[in-house]
Specification:
Elements: H1 4-8, E1 13-17, H2 25-34, E2 39-43, H3 49-56, E3 63-67, H4 72-81, E4 86-87, H5 93-102, E5 106-107, E6 109-110, H6 113-121, E7 126-129, H7 137-147, E8 152-155, H8 164-168, E9 176-178, H9 189-200
Parallel strand pairs: 1-2, 1-9, 2-3, 4-5, 6-7, 7-8
Helix pairs in contact: 2-3, 2-9
Length: 208
């Protein structure tokens, strides 16, 4: 998984995971992988996030990344914890340069044309469209994709299992990010595996 394209094409959905208890890390990762969802974004929103990454990285077949990476320090500790890709909610020059220098697959967040142009100036062309619904939804991404035809996107934020196929039908969308795969509370591995299986089979055009 040495390119961001490879990560984005692992499955139609990248689960956005906010995990408060390290003990739940491996069961959740095992259930997601069993359902066919291998790229797992662990957000750095909890005190145990780095430990969760370490645990999930031990699960065979899991490609674990760090989300909500805000700066160079977050990038450094995530990579040391075993993250194999990096997702950020926005794009700053210091973080972008550090991620590019590190060589790790990097999916920075964008919401505007100016954001995309900043990324293109750095040599980036794969972006997280965030927050997808609040930033204008499908009409907004269609407009951006038309202007930046060389770019591909992972819309994230407010997307559900019911609406994901509409996003995935866009030529510029390689995958979507979603938090619905693992709801809050005590995880039920069987339910998570079933939800993951449904997500892994969401229709994606063969041309992608």
């Amino acid at each position: 998984m040495n390119t961001v394209d490879a990560v984005m094409k692992l499955a139609p959905v990248i689960p956005v995971l906010v995990i408060d208890d390290v003990a739940n890390a491996r069961p959740i990762a095992e259930a997601l992988v069993a359902g066919g969802v291998r790229a797992l974004e662990v957000t750095l929103r909890t005190p145990v996030a780095l430990d969760v990454i370490r645990e999930m990285a031990k699960v065979e077949g899991a490609v674990v990344g760090a989300g909500t990476v805000l700066n160079e320090r977050d990038l450094e500790v995530s990579v040391k914890a075993g993250a194999r890709f990096i997702v950020s909610p926005g794009l700053t020059e210091p973080l972008g340069k550090a991620a590019i220098t590190s060589g790790i697959p990097f999916l920075p967040g964008i919401a505007t044309a100016a954001d995309i142009m900043r990324g293109l100036d750095m040599g980036l062309s794969r972006f997280k469209f965030f927050p997808a619904m609040a930033a204008g939804g499908i009409p907004a991404l269609k407009a951006l994709a038309a202007a930046f035809h060389q770019c591909r996107f992972c819309p994230t934020g407010g997307i559900t299992q019911a609406t994901a196929p509409d996003w995935l039908a866009l030529d510029a969308v390689l995958c979507v990010g979603g938090s619905w795969l693992v709801p809050k509370g005590t995880p039920d591995p069987a339910t998570i595996a079933t939800t993951a299986r449904d997500a892994a089979h969401l229709g994606v055009s063969a041309s992608r």
